[in-house]
Amino acid sequence: MDEIKQQKEEIRLKTKEYLKQLSERKLKKLNTDVINKLFGLANFFEASIALLYIGHEYDPTYKLLIEKTIERGKIVTLPFFNNESEELEFFKIDNLAKDLIRGNNGEFKPNASKCKKVPADYLDIALIPGFAFDEKGSRLGDEKCVYNDEIIPNLPTTVRKVSICFEEQILPAIPMEPNDKYVDIIVSDKRVIYKI
C-alpha cells in the first residue's frame, strides 16, 4: 500500500506543477472549453439539482462552474459536514459571495444558518473533484479522502457522478486502493468519457 500512496502523491505533485505553469489565457480557454462540454452533456442538461464543490487552489474551474450553473437556472448545492451531528448535509447556494463562510480550517463552506438544506435524494447529478483520472473512471482525489470516505458513499445510487478536468489530467492508469471510488463520467476540454 505504501507504494500506491507514493505513486498517488507523485501524480498529485505533477498535476499541481502542470496547473501552476498554465498561463492565465490558456487557463481561461481550458476552463471555458470544459464547462461548455459539461453543459452539452445530456446528464447535466437534464439535471435540476446539482451537487458542485468548492475547489482547492489548484482547481481553478469551480468558481466559474458554480456561477454559470446558477445562471442557467439550476439549483446548486454544496456539501457540508456538520461537526455537531457528524452528518454530511447538502445546502443550496444562490450566490458565491453571500452564501459562503470560512470554516475553522480556513476553507469556504455553505452558511448553514442562511442556506436551505437539500436532502440527498433530491440530487440529480454530482460533480466530484480530482487531480487525475483514467478512462475506467478511476479518480485520484486529495489526501483528505473526504469524497471517498464521506461524500460518494452517501450519494443515492441514481446520482450520476461526474468529474471535470483538463485532457492532460487523464492518465493511462490511476493506482487504486480498495476504498477508492470511481466516477461515472469524465468531461475534459477535449472529450467525454463514460466509465467502461
Can I get a quick summary?
This protein is of the alpha/beta class and 196 residues long.
What does this structure look like?
The chain is an alpha/beta fold and 196 residues long. It has one domain: Rossmann fold. The chain has six helices and eleven strands. The strands form three sheets. It has a seven-stranded mixed β-sheet with strand order 3-2-1-6-9-10-11. A two-stranded antiparallel sheet has the order 4-5. The radius of gyration is 16 Å and the shape is globular. It starts with a helix and ends with a strand. The mean pLDDT is 91.
The biggest beta sheet reads: 7 strands, mixed
- Separate helix tally: 6
Summed up, the domain count is 1
The termini sit apart by 25 Å
Q: What gyration radius follows from the Cα positions, in whole Å? A: 16 Å
- Strands of the widest sheet, in order across it, are 3-2-1-6-9-10-11
CATH-derived topology: Rossmann fold
Look at the structure and name the CATH superfamily. NagB/RpiA/CoA transferase-like
CATH class: Alpha Beta
Contiguous runs where pLDDT drops below 50 for at least 5 residues: none
Considering the chains and any ligands shown, give keywords for the structure.
single chain, 196 residues, alpha/beta, Rossmann fold, 7-stranded mixed β-sheet, two-stranded antiparallel ribbon, globular
Strand and helix layout:
Layout lengths: L1 H20 L2 H16 L2 H5 L2 E3 L10 H10 L3 E8 L4 E7 L2 H4 E3 L5 E3 L14 E3 L4 E2 L5 E2 L5 H6 L8 E5 L20 E3 L4 E3 L2
Parallel strand pairs: 1-2, 1-6, 6-9, 9-10
Antiparallel strand pairs: 2-3, 4-5, 7-8, 10-11
